[in-house]
Amino acid sequence: MAAFLLGAVTLAGCSSGGNPPAASGKTTTTSSGSTGSTSSTSSTSSTSSTTQTTTASSTSTTSVAAQNLAATDSLKSQLTAVYVAKNNLPASQVAGTAPGSVYYGYEPSTKTYWAVASFLPNSSATMQTQVAMQDDGCCGIFSTLNPGSWTLVARFLGAPCAGQIPADLMALWNLQSPGDCG
Length: 182
Hints:
The protein is of the alpha+beta class. It has helices spanning 2-15, 20-32, 36-60, 73-86, 127-132, 167-172, and strands spanning 67-68, 94-97, 103-107, 112-121, 139-144, 151-156. It has 6 helices and 6 strands. β3 and β4 (112-121) form a beta hairpin.
């Protein structure tokens, strides 16, 4: 019976999705009890824990710590559209963001969302587009106060220079300013 409960707890933890604190609290509480009534109490405790986690998340947006956010396909498409428009490139010749190149975060102190991305030409890109996307034409720094309305703030090659994006986001994303910044 104990092995069955442990297996059920493990599966419940796996299916809970992207909220590790609630899953962790649920697993700990359930594994410490052995009766059906304790399991019922665990469910109530888990709900309370989830509520507390949600409250903490809402509160953390007003904290001073920068937040790393998930870069969705929609975000990548928005950044690509702004990049193409600001660089006067034919959209049909830009493949999109380079794999693993998109960083996305929130700076609570300024209430600003930031994104950094590198872009790739597609196989039908002309020589003119390929050249335009080389060097500091490859990469962009974007910001917005309202997600979905991005502005291309600067271009860079390799990594952003210190001061182009908030220092706490540079640290959070583990980006090092290149030595050739002036």
